[in-house]
Amino acid sequence: LTSEPDALEMLSQPLTFLDASWTVRSASFVESGPLRAVARVTAERAARDRATNTDGAAASESASTETASIEIVLEADANRIEVTCRVRARSVPPIVARVPMRHAIARALVGVPFASSMAAPGPGGSAARHRLYDWIAGTDGERGVAILGGDVGVVRVEPRVLSVESSNVDADGVSVTRFALLPFRQGAKRAGLAAQAAEYATPFVAD
User: How confident is the model at residue 186 (pLDDT cuts 50, 70, 90)?
Assistant: First the structure.
């Protein structure tokens, strides 16, 4: 993940999705045009369903497969990377993406209505849950990476790491979490994060 035009690296480690319990089954470009590309990664993990008798004793056990897909959208004229993570599982993983940042202080900068404020980690650098209104960013005052909300309600803040929590499960048993990553290099205010988040939340649809 880099900022343009200087291709400045913005992450201290690779961005990670889900956790080690998931096995990647496929990775491909489902769109690969000159102006827009969409990469899709699918993953699975084994699960066991346990049925119980009325007295609470285990009656039977069956195996099932939980599935996840991650779509990453890259557009030629866009300065952000859009991510959609769909998970169908009995127990949806609490974290869908972990973003370690190279250019950031221990606290994050979070957008609130008409302003911004600091979001601190928990005691001893532990993860603290912060409500996401429209955007949150890790920054050193100039360079940084912002997460634009989309469907995300909560982000966990650790020193120089932001983790995106899963969205709620819908009526079909699927959790769909949508967010975007936006690198910037001239300060959060000049990056116009509030406007970027509003544009992302309400995409233009042609009639």
Answer: confident
Tell me the whole-structure pTM to 2 decimals. 0.86
Report the distance separating Cα 167 and Cα 28, nearest Å.
Answer: 25
Mean pLDDT of 129-147: 92
Q: What are phi and psi of 191, to 5 degrees?
A: -70, -15
In this predicted structure, the answer to whether residue 120 has a pLDDT above a threshold of 90 is yes
Sheet holding 154-158, edge to edge: 16-17, 95-100, 161-165, 154-158, 128-131
Q: Is 92 helix (H, G, I), strand (E, B) or coil?
A: coil
Which residue has tokens 């952000």?
A: 80
Q: Length of the chain, please? A: 207
Instruction: Kindly give, in sequence order, each residue whose CB lies less than 8 Å from that of residue 139, ignoring residues fewer than 6 positions away.
Output: 103, 104, 105, 109, 145, 184, 187, 188
